[in-house]
Amino acid sequence: MSTNESDLSAKISNKEGQKGRVGTDQSKALSNVASARKGSERSERNFVGTGLITKNLHAWFGKKHALANVSMEFASGTVTALIGPSGCGKSTFLRTLNRMHEFIPGAAMAGSVMLDGKDIYEPGTDVTKIRLRIGMVFQKPNPFPSMSIEENVLSGLKLAQIKIQNKEQILQESLERAGLWKEVKDRLGEFGGSLSGGQQQRLCIARALAVNPEVLLMDEPCSALDPGSTLKVEETISHLAKTITVVIVTHNMQQAARVSDYTGFFLSDNGPGELIEVAPTSEIFSTPKNPKTEAYVTGRFG
Amino acid sequence: MSAQVINQNLAAKPGKPWRITPRELILDFVGVVAATAAALLTVKYTGMRGQLGFIGALFFYAIIATVVVSIIKADIKSAANSVSTLFIYIAAAFVVAPVMTVLFTIISRGIKGLNFGIFKTDMSVALPDSPLNEGGLLHALIGTLEIVGFASVICVPIAILTALYLTEIRGRFAGLVRFLVQAMSGVPSIIAGLFIYAIFLISLHGKYSGIAGSLALSILMLPTVARVAEEVLKLIPDDLREAGLALGATQWRTVSKIVIPAARSGLITAIILGVARIAGETAPIILTIGGNDRINWNLFHGQMSALPFYVWREYLYGGDLASARAWTGILVLMIIVMFFFTIARQLGRRGSKA
Q1: What digits encode the pLDDT tens for the residues A92-119?
Q2: Whether A159 and B264 lie within 8 Å, measured CB to CB
Q3: pTM over cut 0.80
Q4: Pairing with A204, which of A153, B152, B252, B333 sits 20 to 30 Å away (CA)?
Q5: Which among B246, B250, B254 has the least Cβ separation from residue A100?
């Protein structure tokens, strides 16, 4: 199954997406949840920067072709969920988006990832600058154990050797955006490891936000968390929307429905993973075009 | 009927139903007494003699007693279990016994010459068979601390960088380097001494000095520190490295600001284990530092002494008083090594908790 590039781009352009979302017939429970997010509170912060576009992206691990021909556009300020069964290549895809894929021995790729009109894989590109602009939150909360909460949040700036003028402001703003400020403002000196799992994950989100990235990639950020913490992280994602472009990989379809504007469905049929369908989230969960997508979102396989 | 909560036994008392019963206790006691008595009788009436004979006989009868008691208590299966447990206990005792014996001997013989005076004076005005309150081992203590300290200064950066090559760079030669480091830890210490003797003292026309000793010891310290440091760095989850890189840090920044701080206590343990490994090394010291009865503070000029050298020299001199000095030297050395091991263990424990 191959995807049509121009068709996708059209679907995902921001304007049409918003229209589509509002006008969707809310016949199914999942699409209801998706639309309910419309009313949720959003940060006043203005979004700067552009979205992310992939063109004919492939990825390999050694000889294994893990991902084939993915062309997708992530419009600025939107939340896109990537769903699909295990091993369908969605995490691999996510890791190609900020060049973390290349750390795996034997990794290879083809195609391009355009950030602000420039291919991040162009030879000579400073990969550390790319990762400053495209942040990442991992599956397991991984605050730096040797650092306090405050040091964790500011660690990205220190690591990238960016001079900090307004430390307090960045600290508070990042923690507020991650929805953690109220809980930790009196204990900023404590170690990050002293927080609960959900708080640690939000600390990792704050840490990623502190360097002010344009895109935030989240690789199953709630799979190690309890339902309460999951809800908190989802609220955080909702607050982030519009100020930053979010791409989130999730196994939880309700979560995709709750937090995302768009959903991409990946599937691997004994071969490399492919993008089967991408559309506004409410459409994916109510009127998917592809029968495979429908089978997956209605729980008939996967 | 639907399930319901039975709520009658509110006044429960904590108990230990698995505790040993009086019958079992008596059986165990009888078994121990029988085995001991049989061993004593064997020593008295057969060819087996002395402590060793008694322990051998006791071992034999203990197995029989264990089997019999277990069969009376339960069945043949539990007897097999008890016998294997017994063997494990005995094996553990065999490991601990020599260490305890050595410790006991060193303490009982070394305590004679142990007084504050020995930490205040050197042997410049005393002979090995002077009374024990004349002349001390301060010169040797200073020598050991300086030589081991400088060996660490040479070794630690190289060892840690080697470990970082193995765990962080994971370069093409990682396998070869790991193999060589492992092979190096099997090098006899006298080879390290001879190597420095041949290079530093013969080829480069150097003189006997503390620095030559430090060089020889750093060769021995390197594999210990590098291997322990590698193990410690391997324990740092890749999640943290990825988190650092994903924040836009270079690999060097990630390693120096995240990986090394996270592994800090473990790395300190590695260094301390390396120090403990070399503090008592004798052969390379004898070949390189030349020995001295006076305090020599200068690591780079003039012959020096060190605790193992002091022990060796006093032992060679012979006689009761010189021997007593040698034992005291060993005791001081042991205390230093044990001190470092204890710190390393404490740090290691704290590190594993975090």
Answers
A1: 999 999 999 988 888 999 999 999 888 9
A2: no
A3: no
A4: B252
A5: B246
